[in-house]
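[[Encoded backbone]]
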Amino acid sequence: MSNLLIIDDNLMTLQQINSMLEDTYDISLAKSGSQALLMCYQIIPDLILLDIEMPEMDGFETLAKIKKNMALRHIPVIFLTSSHNTELEVRALKSGAVDFINKPADREILLHRIEVHLSLSSYNRQLENKVRVLEDSIIASFSDMIEYRDENTGGHVARTAKYVHVLATELLNRNKFLDEINEFTVDMMSRAAPLHDVGKIAISDVILLKPSLLNDEEFAIMKTHTTVGGELLRGIFSRVPDQSYHEFAIMIAEGHHERWDGKGYPKGLKAEQIPLCARVMSIADVFDALVDMRVYKRPMNHRDACRIILSEKGHMFDPAVVDAFEAVQDRFAEVSTHRY
């Protein structure tokens, strides 16, 4: 059964529309745009009925915030209004609403319009899933290219994607960063994670495969894999249909070596200036580097690796993400022993 969110500041209108639709759909009700946005972070609706004339945050402002959020922008929104104004209707459609219904709404018309847009939305999702399969194949190919070049990091991209999923899911379960993380963004982070080191394609084998620590000049070149990765992904994604994970992939590629204390690279971002997905990725990346074999070092045991991650709380890593890591460190151990 499809889930509908109805937003209207008039309690009587909410009750009337709810009585029309509750036998056909799962209904959620909100008396303001701000309340509705908070509800969307918990349960993403299949369609939204949105009143235009509301105090504090009107329908247009609410819709703009919905469209700005990557997890919500695909939801069809039907505007409701008691105003019979052609200019208002045109503005509503130009703002991103899929339809416009005058109040009081006729039940049959309302049901018909809702079904039309739910069907269109379902068809669009089917198309997006086909694109997703193609894009996931591209991700796998890039990941393979990276690992073929560096035989010492076999399985790294697959494991780090698993770590990211475990860590992001724990943050979601803890109700942390409610305005940034939900089931949709957990999925996007996990899909984008394998591309975090794609910029290493441009790094010389002399540096990438060096069997000892890099000198300062070599390390400066190695650090460019973050910006090169971002540029490469922007170029690729400009040629394919827009998908939300693109933005996550770019943020992760560019930001997974930034540090919470601002001493990272390439931009020296600090604390929450660093995108959340990159803050999650950085722990996954460092943990796997610690416990895995490298040509220049032996693998570290799980306990010592966890001790290092925890010691960098508030320094290299986001304290809240470290707390989540501490809770799921046994899951990390399971992932680290699996050969991908």
Remarks:
- The mean pLDDT is 88.
- DSSP finds 15 helices and five strands in the chain.
